[in-house]
Amino acid sequence: MANAQAGGQWYPPEWPERIRALASGELAPVTPKRAATVMLLKDTGDGPAVHMLRRRTSMAFAGGAYAYPGGGVDPRDDDRHVRWAGPSLDWWADRLGVDRAGAQAIVCAAVRETYEEAGVLLAGPAPDAVVGDTTGADWEADRAALVARELSFAEFLDRRGLVLRSDLLGAWTRWITPEFEPRRYDTWFFAAALPEGQRTRNASTEADRTVWITPREAAGGYDRGELLMMPPTIATLRQLVAYGTAAEALDAAPTRDLTPVLASARLVDGEIVLSWPGHDEFTQHIPTGGAPA
Questions:
Q1: Is residue 204's pLDDT more than 90?
Q2: Nudix hydrolase domain: which residues (predicted)?
């Protein structure tokens, strides 16, 4: 079971042992899998709210923690033609720091996971249109087939004659799971506004609750220890507080730094110091034989 340290920061109790094993060479880092997650925004009277889901407490990774819809890249989405609107694949490859195939797979993952876990689809019948309603038995059948990986996202778009609206996404930040974690992800975080006419719902089997909450409210809940979150989640929430509308946040996205954030652990004066570059609030000091301080 995870611990909450420093407010609502998610902290697995096995980390100290794994960190020591990595430092001694007994543990070899696993290669991180590419993933994407989306901060879905909608305007309220108190500024933009973000859609968050709470991971089931039974989940092996970050159980009970609040997060955004997201998941791993599907390899099938990097080599098949996808009807595409918005910036070119070359533009996205440069922005995300990958090749064209990787860019397509990452953007497809962002759009697909938002549909799979929140029922919101950033695609439309034309480059300047977005679907208005994704409810109904036929939509649900396709969504279930995507979740089961019986249907690739490219096939789903083709079947419905839809164009992926990459222009509705703004690449926000990039975090890589620490080297001592058994499950590692290289995750690109995107921002997007809830399309008009669409509604979110809890479509994820991994979540037991979903909320629309302002970044300021969510950060306050974290600071009081009421909402459990991983460092990337609370870090992005704090960054979103500055924006008065969803459009303002999306306008800021193209200039944001996508240098990956990767935690480091080092031994200093008999204790492990765990830190995330550029995010001092997450620094933890772990006695070599105990839990974090």
A1: no
A2: 32-235
Beta bridge partners of 188: 36, 174
- In the numeric block, the tokens 């990767």 are attached to 262
To the nearest 10°, the Cα dihedral for 240, 245, 247, 251?
Answer: -50
- Predicted pLDDT at 289: 60
Question: Measured between alpha carbons, how far is 185 from 36 in angstroms, rounded to an integer?
Answer: 9
Residue 88 amino acid letter: S
Q: Would you say 169 and 121 are in contact if contact means Cβ atoms under 8 Å apart? A: no
- As a whole number of angstroms, the distance between CA 45 and CA 156 comes to 36
Q: Which two tokens stand for residue 224?
A: 């009081």
What is residue 267's predicted lDDT score, i.e. its pLDDT? Answer: 77
The answer for residues whose C-beta is within 8 angstroms of residue 147's C-beta and 6 or more apart is 116, 205
Q: Read off the pLDDT of residues 133-183 as tens digits, 9 standing for 90 and up.
A: 888 889 989 999 998 999 999 999 999 999 999 999 999 999 998 888 888
Question: For the chain, what is the mean pLDDT?
Answer: 88
Residue 3 has pLDDT above 60, yes or no: no
